[in-house]
Design a protein that fits this description.
Elements lengths: L2 H8 L2 E4 L5 H7 L5 E4 L2 E3 L9 E4 L6 E3 L8 E3 L2 E10 L5 E6 L2 E11 L2 E6 L2 E11 L2 E5 L3 E11 L2 E5 L3 E5 L2 E3 L5 E6 L2 E5 L2 E6 L1 E6 L3 E5 L2 E5 L8 E6 L2 E5 L2 E3 L6 E4 L2 E5 L2 E4 L5 E4 L3 E5 L2 E4 L4 E3 L4 E5 L2 E2 L5 E3 L6 E6 L5 E3 L7
Parallel strand pairs: 1-2, 2-4, 3-5, 4-7, 5-7, 6-8, 7-9, 8-10, 9-11, 10-12, 11-13, 12-14, 13-15, 13-16, 14-17, 15-18, 16-19, 17-20, 18-21, 19-22, 20-23, 21-24, 22-25, 23-26, 24-27, 25-28, 26-29, 27-30, 28-31, 29-32, 30-33, 31-34, 32-35, 33-36
Antiparallel strand pairs: 36-37
Amino acid sequence: MPGALLSLALAAAVEVPAGASAGEALARARPGDVVRLAAGTFREALDPPPGVSIAGAGPERTVLVPPEGMQGVRAAGRLSLTGLSVRAGPARCALAVVGGAVDLRDVVLSGGSCGAFVEDGSLRGEEVELRGGEYGILVRRGEASLSGGSATGGSAGAAVLRGRLALSRVLLFGPSREAGLSVAGGEARLDGVLVASPGPAGIAVSYGGRVEGRDVSVGGTVERGGFPGACVQVLKGEVRLASSELLHCGGAALEASGGTVALDGVEAEGGTAGCLVLLDGARAELQGNHCAGRGPGLVAASGSTAALRMNQWSVDPVFLVECETGSRVRLVYGPRGTESREPCSPAR
């Protein structure tokens, strides 16, 4: 019998009734087995062997509650989780991926520190709810991909340090102390993501971090320490958004201090700081966007530069350009973008 067929033949479903030990069942399981947890509460932490699937009777029906001071599930190999909830205590995560490859579907993960933590591994989830005292999901290294579901956390709904995160049709909601999405040195790709009432920033990108998104909606930022929050904040990072909207922003719709920004087909509504604010040598490419709200439309200061094409400005004033510091705004027009002009010329 071929190896793949032999594995299927040997795979088994291990039933675990309420009150029994899920850990003992996992210790007996073989790669390919499905450990089925009945409805009920299992008060234990799990460290599953590689290649095993764990299936519950549904989120909030099958609940795993680890002892205080322990992670809920630790995955160092391949693992599948479906139809259950994991609730970890203070300073712990419901799921810790440490070199493993985890598939999630119809799962709720909540922890005093984070819902899910990924380091040197991979996580893929469908319709997952992530709740954390600090982070809904934290990707320190490795990669994570989520489709559907939501994430919320006291510091950020989702955070990326040096890894990669892909979100599709995911809701990030607050309030959070940092941002709905915080990316510092890693990379995030967004498709159809809603960032709602996130706190002081909707998306915060810093120190080499990169965010690329399409059909992204950010709104409802608030003040922090007396300063109005921006829907998108960039600090020496890179942000590229297309066909998106930045609305109900407390401060600027987008504020960049250094770094690179590209907006294409973005509806932006500025707050008390204006619509788009570029500082400290930031560079921007703006095409087909609409800026509304309180003016000014575009602030370019401290040597920042911007190239603009086919944008609309429902603000007054439209531009504030600090020409004496070398800041420049180039208006590109013509059928092929071969002509341009600048609101100010270099000082002589």
